[in-house]
Specification:
Blueprint lengths: L14 H24 L10 H31 L9 H21 L2 H27 L6 H27 L8 H33 L6 H24 L7 H23 L8 H25 L3 H36 L7 E2 L3 H4 L2 H24 L2 H26 L6 E2 H4 L25
Antiparallel strand pairs: 1-2
The structure holds protoporphyrin IX containing FE.
The site of protoporphyrin IX containing FE (HEM) has 25 residues, from helix 2, helix 5 and helix 6.
Amino acid sequence: MNRKGLRLDQAPPLHLPLRFFLTAPLFGVGAGLLLAWKGAELLLTPWSFPTLALVHLITLGFLTMVMMGALYQITPVLVGTPVPGTGLVWLVHLGLVCGLAALTLWLLTGAPFLNWLAVAGLLPAFLIFLGQMALALRRAPTWNATVFSIALAVTALALAISLGLVFLGEFAALWQLPARRPLATAHVYLALGGWVGTLITGVGYAVIPMFYLSGKFPAHLTWLVMAFQLLLPISGSLVAFLAPSPVWHLIPLLIAASATGVFTFAVVRALRGRKRRIIDSTLRYWQTGIACAPLSLASLAVFTFHPEFRWLMAFGVLFLLGFAMSILSGMLYKIVAFLVWLHRFSKMAGKMDVPLLRDIIPHRPTALQWWTHLLMLGLLVVAALTGHDGLARAGGLALVVSCGALFLILLRAARFNRPTTSTESTGITATNSSGAATAEPQPPSQGSTEA
Ligand code: HEM
């Protein structure tokens, strides 16, 4: 673990990010149950209410939940300023959980009071969260590519959420939107390109060198990806409003492909150059994610020329579950193991026999979990392309199993509190990755190679 340049002294208490990390897989289980219940009906058109419920269980319930928890954790560490008002984080979490539950139930049942409940939960949750992020970013001592990416991602989230709430107002008959379809398309560009894509790439520059001892990403590549990420939601939203034909969406698609190409090149180069050649599930997740990103864009390109919804649904599966959920699951394993070690054992390192990261999150269950995730992806891509009901339901069950397993592995890690033995009796001290005893506490390595 390379901790150079990190302000770990500013890291928030462990329970703060963990509540988001532990809740996210449960919404993944919810998405899987919905799919297993409704089957291929959810994969026929992107605009039906039950499909929107499924999409938001994944985008808000899993992806945004993890990314908000991660931002509370990494903003003080990577940006160098504490997030203000952390005493309100429980309210943000509660609002997001209750608001999303209400939104899902409203999309499935149409009961009007649920629409209001969704707004009552989501609006304060996001207002507090976005306010906290804005204040923290305003005080950033330096602006590097990661800080810019966080700022861009948070701005895109603010815009996407505003549009989402405007749609809810329309559904509640408060107003009528003049340009409904372009606004919905802008919401998707902002949410997926601006929020999810930018944050994953921006945080990737910081965490890959840290977790895989890979050396830093070249600055010109990180800024280049940043520039593409900035252009993507802007060009996508402009095209949504102004372009006379769908073929114009090839412009933002080309920008997304350029960002993906440069980012993939930089990640592959960094991972090839990593000092410790361990292949674990977290690395498999990165590989899965960066393989799915170009495939998802290819589906979108096909959709531009053959506007059949199955290509759009395949894009959704490949981007949301294949790219974003894969990378975030891999990051969760690394981050949770490291945080538990940092908060519970780092002070004992050098004095006591402390556990290894792989004791906190063992390899074998994570490898099995990754296989179920792959199975789920395979089933759902084929189900999206063929509309096969049995495969859609089986894919939903596989999503339940993979997210359920992710939850149990993270829960075990969160509760990990193994008693330690004194070095005075065993003579064991914490060692760094090269085996030398360390003066400063270092998390012990994962240690083994896995096929
Ligand atoms: C307060 C939060 C949000 C609300 C209330 C909301 C609401 C909505 C609504 C009502 C639609 C349908 C638009 C229409 O049919 O005209 C929609 C579409 C969509 N939203 Fe959101 N949204 C929110 C946040 C997000 C976020 C953060 C993401 C991604 C991370 C996201 C991803 C999407 C996607 C991908 C679609 C297209 C769905 C499809 O193709 O089936 N939304 N959203």
